[in-house]
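Lab meeting, action items carried over

1. Structure of the two-component assembly. Owner: GW. Status: complete.
Input record:
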Amino acid sequence: AQSVTQPDIHITVSEGASLELRCNYSYGATPYLFWYVQSPGQGLQLLLKYFSGDTLVQGIKGFEAEFKRSQSSFNLRKPSVHWSDAAEYFCAVGASWGKLQFGAGTQVVVTP
Amino acid sequence: NAGVTQTPKFQVLKTGQSMTLQCAQDMNHEYMSWYRQDPGMGLRLIHYSVGAGITDQGEVPNGYNVSRSTTEDFPLRLLSAAPSQTSVYFCASSRALSGRAGGETQYFGPGTRLLVL
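Predicted assembly:
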């Protein structure tokens, strides 16, 4: 069965510093991988997704993620965070037919 | 386009009461899903539908019913609410991708916060 692990429940980062969120997956085949962001009290918004091909994926809001098959990872990065990046971030694997398996999420706090 | 809409935004129920959470999308998407979000557990799939008249169970279906009589609507019914169903519920929809099942981008509604006393 597929699963997604986000090892960090909570991360605090200073504004302007770089950010990396970890995601590890377990899946039998080549996975479809997603990162979603949830701002407080809001629904989820897609940041980026990986299908195949280039292992470095660019997304919205200056985010990128790198797929590493050998490490079963799909880590999300941003070179310089803004206060508006404070949110909860979810990694997910596409199971099939419109279904997503989510990780537990990582809460990001941005300090001045 | 309104996207995915959910009503109500917030609801308080007593144990044993029933209610229906409404979800509608105006993007003509084939797939629709219901998830619940609980602290430390991410989002878990309750039920999903791949088209009008076709539904199936997800990871946590007990205590919930769904039906899909039209492409646009996918209501979630709680027949007898329990405190364990206190959660935030999200509806999502996506367009089918030929040859890439599982790669669909899901669009989420704003959520319904449910409290069962």
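2. GW to write a short summary for the group page. Key points so far: The interface with chain A takes residues 4, 30-33, 35, 40-45, 48, 50, 58, 90, 92, 94, 96, 100-106, 108-111 of chain B (CB under 8 Å). The radius of gyration of chain B is 14 Å.
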